[in-house]
Write a structure and sequence with these properties.
Blueprint: H1 3-6, H2 18-25, H3 28-40, E1 44-45, H4 55-67, E2 71-76, E3 79-84, H5 86-92, H6 96-101
Helix pairs in contact: 3-4
Length: about 110
């Protein structure tokens, strides 16, 4: 199996509705993944995230984000890499990614 055969399907953002995006980002673990990708500005391997969930649950979270059009996944060797679809997402939903991923203001 070559790397192209292992790359999962990614939806066109025109086929993703806003409800699916909001549901993907309501989970704090998924929001933390998107925030980290947004801040880093670089693609990050699944295994490089320090998530407070099991590996199988983390895999589910990455799948939800991919199906909501927020991330693109591809392989480098045996590592599954994650890229934030920032430019595409900004065209489809201007300002939404920033609004949903910024850290909440500290009160007090």
């Amino acid at each position: 199996m070559n790397a192209m055969e292992r790359v999962p399907q990614h939806p066109e953002l025109s086929h993703v509705d806003l409800q699916q995006v909001l549901e993907a980002l309501v989970d704090p673990v998924r929001r933390s993944i998107v925030r980290r990708l947004n801040v880093s500005g670089a693609d990050i391997a699944c295994g490089a995230f320090d998530l407070p969930v099991s590996k199988s649950t983390a895999t589910h979270h990455f799948k939800v984000l991919r199906e909501a059009g927020l991330i693109r996944q591809y392989y480098v060797g045996t590592s599954r890499m994650n890229a934030l679809r920032r430019t595409e997402f900004e065209k489809a939903y201007p300002g939404l990614l920033s609004a949903l991923t910024e850290e909440p203001a500290q009160v007090g």
